[in-house]
TrEMBL record:
A Pfam family reported for this protein in Swiss-Prot or TrEMBL: Catalase-rel
Pathway annotation: Alkaloid biosynthesis
Binding site residues for heme: 340
The organism of origin for this protein: Aspergillus ibericus CBS 121593
Gene Ontology process terms (BP): alkaloid metabolic process; hydrogen peroxide catabolic process; response to hydrogen peroxide
Protein's recorded name: Catalase
Protein family (similarity comment): Belongs to the catalase family.
Enzyme Commission code: 1.11.1.6
Residue positions of the active site: 57, 130
Entry keyword annotation includes Oxidoreductase: yes
C-alpha cells in the first residue's frame, strides 16, 4: 500500500510541509510573501480550527455502538427500529457534564447529559436526556438562567455558590433534582456505570394510529456505582479526563459497556386524571404505577477515529423523532426541540446534518433546505426548491400515517402567564426519596455534601436553602443547621 503524499488543501503536492518559502536577509532573518500558499493556508486554518463549544454540556466523551431489540413492542409503536426481536441499529452515544467548559474535570458534582442517536431506516432518532430522572425547572424561559447560575460569576470569572443557591431557593421546583445531585448519584464512577433517562414524556404511536405516553430509561448492565467526594476531587486534579479515558480504554480492551433500555407506558385515559407528573419533568412516574418494560440493549463497541470529527461535531436534538414516536405538550420538550438544533446551526453551520456523525443512513430528500455554508454533495441539482411543483421528482411518503389525536386542555384555559406555582406536591417525591430510598448513611452524606457547598455563602442564602429543604422534611433542615454550626466552629 503506497504512502500518502503531502499536499495543499486542494491537492497540489508539497515537497516539504514544514518549510515556508522565504527570501533570506542577513543575521538569520528572512522575508515571507503572500505568494506562500502553504504558509497562508497553515496559519489561517490554525486561527479557525476551534468552533464554539457547547454552551451547556461542553465537556464530554462518546463512542459508536449498536442497539438491538430484545422485546418486540410493535403493538405499542410503529417505529421500525423498535419492531422485531433482533432488529439492530447503529448508534452514536455522548455523555457529558452540564456546567463546565471543555477543559473542566469529568468528576465534578453535576447532572450528566446522556444522549443517544439511533441511525434508522426512517431517519435519525435521538434520545437526549440526563443521568438523573428529573430536571431542575419546568418553565423553559428559566433554562438559560439555570445554566448561568451554575457557571462563573460575570464579574470575577470564578465559580460562585451564592449564584447557585440563590437561583434554586427562588425556583424551589428544583428541589427534587437537587436531592439526586447532592446524593451519591451526583458523582458517578464512570460513564460505563451511569444510568440514563429521556426525562420527558413522549408518545408511542401504534400502527393503528392509537397512542400511549411513555418515558425512556437506560440501565447499565455493569451496575450503577459512585465515587466519594474525596475520590472525585482527587481525580479532578490527577486526571481531568478520567471518564473519557475510562470509556475509551474499556472499549479498546474489548470490555464493551452495555445498557438495557426500558420504557414506562401510560394510557391516555390514565393521563387525564394522573395529575401534573404526566408532563412535569420535575416529577417521576413511580414504577409501582408504571412498571419498566424492557425494549432492548445498547452496546458501545467502537471508539471514534477522530474525536473532533465524530464527537465534537455530533449534534443531538429531541426534535429528531421517527414515525411512531411523537412529542407531547411538555413546554420544556417543545423549547428544547427548537433550542438544540438552533445551537447546532450556530456551532456547526446550517448544514450540520450533512456532517458524518449526523448524516442519516437512509435516503434524504429535502430540496427546500439547501445552499448555505459547507453544503456537501450536489445540492439537489436543478430540482425545484419550492413546494407543490409539478416539476419535482419527489413523492409523498406512503408509509407514514398522519397522527391525529386530541390534547386535553384545562377547562377555561387561557393563553397567558400560567405559572405552575410551587406547592406541597413538589415536595412529595423528594420526601419519598429521602425517607424511602436513602438509608441513614446516604442521608448523612447528602447533608454533608450540601452544607459543604454552602460554606462561604451569604447567611441569608444559607437560611433560604435550609428553609427550602425543610419543606421536604424538617429533619433535613435541622441536620443542615447542626452541620453548618459545627463547620463554623472549626
Amino acid at each position: 500500500m503506497s504512502k500518502p503524499v503531502y499536499t495543499l488543501a486542494e491537492g497540489q503536492p508539497l515537497p516539504n510541509p514544514s518549510l515556508s518559502t522565504t527570501l533570506p536577509t542577513f543575521g538569520g532573518g528572512a522575508v515571507t510573501t503572500l505568494g506562500d500558499t502553504l504558509l497562508i493556508e497553515t496559519l489561517t486554518h490554525f486561527n479557525r480550527e476551534r468552533i464554539p463549544e457547547r454552551v451547556v454540556h461542553a465537556k464530554g466523551s462518546g463512542a459508536w455502538g449498536e442497539f438491538r431489540v430484545t422485546n418486540d413492542i410493535s403493538h405499542l409503536t410503529c417505529a421500525k427500529f423498535l419492531n422485531g426481536v433482533g432488529k439492530t441499529s447503529k448508534v452514536l452515544f455522548r455523555s457529558s457534564t452540564t456546567g463546565g467548559e471543555k477543559g473542566s474535570a469529568d468528576t465534578v458534582r453535576d447532572v450528566r447529559g446522556f444522549a443517544v442517536k439511533f441511525f434508522t431506516e426512517e431517519g435519525n432518532h435521538d434520545i437526549v436526556g440526563n443521568h438523573v430522572p428529573v430536571f431542575f425547572v419546568r418553565d423553559p424561559v428559566r433554562f438559560p438562567s439555570l445554566n448561568r447560575s451554575h457557571k462563573k460569576h460575570p464579574a470575577t470569572g470564578l465559580p460562585d455558590m451564592n449564584m447557585y443557591w440563590d437561583f434554586h431557593c427562588n425556583q424551589p421546583e428544583s428541589v427534587h433534582t437537587l436531592m439526586h445531585v447532592f446524593g451519591s448519584r451526583g458523582l458517578p464512577t464512570s460513564v460505563r456505570s451511569m444510568t440514563g433517562f429521556g426525562i420527558h414524556t413522549f408518545k408511542l404511536v401504534g400502527h393503528d394510529g392509537r397512542f400511549r405516553y411513555c418515558k425512556f430509561h437506560f440501565k447499565p448492565v455493569l451496575g450503577f456505582s459512585t465515587m466519594t467526594p474525596d475520590e472525585a476531587t482527587r481525580m479532578a486534579g490527577v486526571n481531568a479526563d478520567f471518564h473519557n479515558q475510562d470509556l475509551s480504554l474499556a472499549i479498546a480492551r474489548g470490555e464493551h459497556p452495555v445498557w438495557k433500555m426500558y420504557i414506562q407506558v401510560m394510557e391516555p385515559e390514565q393521563a387525564e386524571t394522573y395529575g401534573r407528573a404526566v408532563f412535569d419533568i420535575t416529577k417521576v412516574w413511580p414504577h409501582k404505577d408504571f412498571p419498566l418494560i424492557e425494549v432492548g440493549e445498547m452496546t458501545l463497541n467502537r471508539n471514534p477515529e477522530n474525536f473532533f470529527a465524530e464527537i465534537e461535531q455530533a449534534a443531538f436534538s429531541p426534535s429528531n423523532l421517527v414515525p411512531g414516536i411523537a412529542m407531547t405538550p411538555d413546554p420544556m420538550l417543545q423549547a428544547r426541540m427548537f433550542a438544540y438544533p438552533d445551537a447546532q446551526r450556530y456551532r456547526l453551520g446550517v448544514n450540520y446534518t450533512q456532517l458524518p456523525p449526523n448524516r442519516a443512513i437512509c435516503p434524504v430528500y429535502a430540496p427546500y433546505e439547501r445552499d448555505g455554508m459547507a453544503t456537501m454533495g450536489r445540492n439537489y441539482g436543478g430540482d425545484p426548491n419550492y413546494v407543490r411543483s409539478t416539476l419535482t421528482p419527489g413523492v409523498f411518503s406512503q408509509s407514514v400515517q398522519e397522527v391525529r389525536h386530541n390534547e386535553w386542555l384545562r377547562s377555561g384555559a387561557v393563553l397567558g402567564f400560567n405559572e405552575i406555582l410551587v406547592d406541597d406536591e413538589d415536595f412529595v417525591q423528594p420526601r419519598a426519596l429521602w425517607n424511602n430510598v436513602f438509608d441513614e448513611a446516604e442521608r448523612r452524606k447528602w447533608v454533608a455534601n450540601v452544607t459543604a457547598s454552602l460554606e462561604g455563602v451569604l447567611p441569608e442564602i444559607q437560611q433560604a436553602t435550609i428553609a427550602m429543604f425543610s419543606r421536604v422534611e424538617p429533619q433535613i433542615g435541622q441536620m443542615m443547621e447542626a452541620q453548618l454550626k459545627g463547620s463554623a466552629r472549626l
